[in-house]
Specification:
This protein is mainly alpha-helical and 117 residues long. 60% of the residues lie in helices and 0% in strands. The longest helix is centred in the N-terminal third of the chain and has 14 residues, at 30-43. The protein is globular, with a radius of gyration of 13 Å. The model has no long low-confidence stretch (mean pLDDT 91).
Amino acid sequence: MNGGMYTEREMQCVKEGIDAVRSVLSGTDTEAKRRLLFYLDWYMDPYYKQDISGIKNDLKEMLEKVAVSPEEEDIIDEALHLLEGYTDPPYPILAAYWGNLSKKHKPKALYLLQGAG
């Protein structure tokens, strides 16, 4: 399956709430993470008028954790992209674990930490 496509499963996961999202993002199924992050890119976009106010802070925290975890590079890229596009500073987890990031991801993380997200 193409990792860039999401399915009804990802939509249902978000409908089920933050615990279901956390379960996927902290799990071991890399393809499921890719699909969920791709869906979250749509879901978090204000243009589509989804009400994320109740889970926005939890989503931000989870995305920070994904960004500093030992994930596939594209998973970290997407987490950083979502943080940049749809959340606001501060990023305490990103700051605390900045040293764990690869050279590739440090510039984007530094950009976010400097408040330019």
